[in-house]
Amino acid sequence: MRRRRLGRTGFEVSEIGFGGWGIGGTMWRGVPDEEALRALDSALELGVDFFDTALAYGEGHSERLIGRVLRQRGARGRVVVATKVPPRDSVWPGRASTPLAEVFPARWIRRSVEASLGNLGAEVLDVEQLHVWNDAWLDDPAWPDTRAEMERLRDEGKVRHWGISVNDHAPDTALRVLEDPLLETVQVIYNIFDRLAERELFPLARRRGLGVIVRVPFDEGALAGAVAPDTAFPCGDWRHRYFRDDRREEAWRRAEALRAFLGTEAATLSELALRFCLAPPEVSTVIPGMRRPEHVRANAAVSDGRALSADLLEKLRPHAWNKNWYGD
After folding, report:
1. pLDDT in tens, 221-252
2. Which end of the chain is more exposed for a tag (fewer CB within 10 A), N or C?
C-alpha cells in the first residue's frame, strides 16, 4: 500500500482509505455487521491505515464497529481515523439561509466530539470534520464562538486536526473557510463524472497545504459497474431514491461508455475510477465504501504505483457529467 501526505497534519496515510458510511447499517442495507467487521479486518491486513466515518452513520454504529476492530487488533496507534460532527438540524447540504446556531452551535460541537470519542473508544480524534458547510456562515455572529470551541477542543487534546466535509457537488461553498489556518483537511466528491474540485478547490488545497480526502469515487456504485437499469436495491436502502425513475439507466449508459477505455491501464471500471481519483497530486487519500472483504482486496490492489497516462486522462474529460442527485 502506497502512502501520501495528509496535507500539513503531519500524517502519512494509505492512498486508498476505508469509507465507513456503508457500514453504518441504516441508509445502506444488505450487509450484516459480521461482514463489515471482516471487511475492516481485511483492510488492516492489506495496509489500509486511514478510516473515515461519522457520528451520523447509523447514529454512531460505523464508529463503534471501527473502534471495536481497532481495539481487537491493537491497531489504534498505527491508523488515522477521521470522523465528523453532524449538522444539528440534520440538513444536507448546508443552507446559506440557516443560522449557524441551528447547525453548529459551540455546545453541539463539544457534545458531538465527546460522543465520537466514546463510540471509537479513543482519547483523541485524529481528524474531526464539520459534516457540512456553507461559507455564508463565516459572517454569522455565532461563528466566533463555534470556532473558539473547536480551538479549545484541540488545545484540550481531544481533537488533533480539524477539517471540512464540503457540500455535495458544490466545493465552491467552502473556499473561504479553508483559508482559516484552523482547518487542515477537506473532504470532497471527486470522480470521473464530477470534476468540480479541479477548478478552485484543488488549487486552494495546493496553496494552503490542505489534505484532500476524496469521497464517492464510484458515484454510489455507478462507476464500479454495479448499477444497471434493472438493479434492485434492498428494502430501505437510500439508493432507491438516489437512482429513482430513469436514473439507473442513464448512469448505466454513461458508465458503459467508459468500458471503451479498459485495457492495460485499467482492467475494470472500478479500477479505472480509482486510478482517476489518484491522478491529481493534491489528493491525499481516496475513501471508497468497502462493506465486503472482496471489495477491500480489489480496491487496495489499485495502490501499486501505476498511474493513468496523460492521454487516457484527456480522453476521460468529455465524460464529466454535471448533475446533483443528492440535492434534488
Report:
1. 899 999 999 999 888 887 888 889 999 999 99
2. C
**Residue whose grid cell is 463503534:** 64
Write out the three cell numbers for 147.
Answer: 470556532
Partners of residue 289 on adjacent β-strands: 19
Cis? peptide before 93, omega within 30° of 0: yes
The secondary structure of residue 233, as a DSSP letter, is: P
Pick from 9, 19, 77: nearest CA to 53: 19
Helices (H), 46-120: 61-73, 106-120
Amino acid at 4: R
Rounded alpha-carbon distances, angstroms, from residue 269 to 14, 102, 174 = 21, 41, 30
* Cα separations in angstroms, 110 against 84, 105, 154: 12, 9, 11
For residue 21 the three cell numbers come to 458510511
Answer yes or no: are the C-beta atoms of 327 and 169 closer than 8 Å. yes
Write the secondary structure of 171-232 as one string of H (helix), E (strand) and C (coil): HHHHCCHHHCCCEEEEEEECCCCCCHHHCCHHHHHHHHCCEEEEECCCCCCHHHCCCCCCCC
**Cell (9 digits) for 247:** 436514473
Residue 165 grid coordinates: 466535509
Which phi and psi angles does 130 have, rounded to 5°? -75, 125
Supply the Cα-derived Rg of the chain in whole angstroms.
19
Rounded Cα distance between 65 and 35, Å, is 11
pTM of the model: 0.96
Q: Which residues pair with 246 in a beta bridge?
A: none
Among all chains, which residue has been given the C-alpha cell 457520528?
Answer: 55
Of how many residues is the chain composed?
328
Q: Provide the grid cell at 314.
A: 484527456
pLDDT digits (tens, 9 = 90+) for 271-325: 999 999 999 999 999 999 998 999 999 999 999 999 999 999 999 999 999 888 8
